[in-house]
Design a protein that fits this description.
single chain, alpha/beta, 5 strands, globular
């Protein structure tokens, strides 16, 4: 049996993401472990600046006015993200499992990689202009802590982040 692959995602995975992971699995019997953070630890000011940098002015002000969602809302969103992601990856490798994780997302990824003996880790996010530019995104943070490759993919696309 091949080593597991641990996937951390903040977005529900879809058909394009399945294709990317399928190429990574490449016919092996690796198991897939999907982690979804219960709280993505986003900050209103950073989100505001990122939306402006992506030229989404309306979304920037809408999210700024909306404030931070409560824990129950974030947990419900994480549960939906996990269910969609597990469904999208069903049938790949030797099986797909997953969980919603509390605490810091990168710490959860690092812990799960060490716990499972995974040889690969994947971080799937939407673009984050500030974090990606300054290499403070989850993939870079995980790469700094792990001795295994961390692939950074942008959700719903074939684009690879700069890790």
């Amino acid at each position: 049996m091949s080593d597991p692959i641990v996937i951390l995602t903040e977005e529900p995975l879809g058909a394009d993401d399945r294709l990317n992971i399928e190429q990574l699995v490449d016919g092996s019997d690796s198991s897939l472990v999907v982690l979804v953070p219960a709280n993505t630890e986003r900050h209103l000011l950073v989100d505001f600046l990122e939306n402006l940098s992506m030229l989404d002015v309306a979304k920037a002000f809408r999210e700024l006015a909306g404030g931070t969602p409560d824990d129950a809302t974030e947990r419900a969103h994480a549960d939906e993200t996990l269910a969609a992601s597990l469904a999208a990856l069903a049938g790949l490798g030797s099986g797909v499992t997953g969980q919603v994780v509390a605490g810091k997302a990168v710490d959860s990824l690092v812990s799960k990689v060490k716990e499972t003996g995974a040889s690969q880790a994947v971080v799937i996010t939407r673009p984050h202009a500030v974090a990606d530019t300054f290499h403070t995104d989850w993939a870079n943070k995980a790469q700094d802590q792990l001795g295994v490759p961390v692939l950074h993919l942008y959700a719903g696309s074939g684009f690879i982040g700069d890790s």
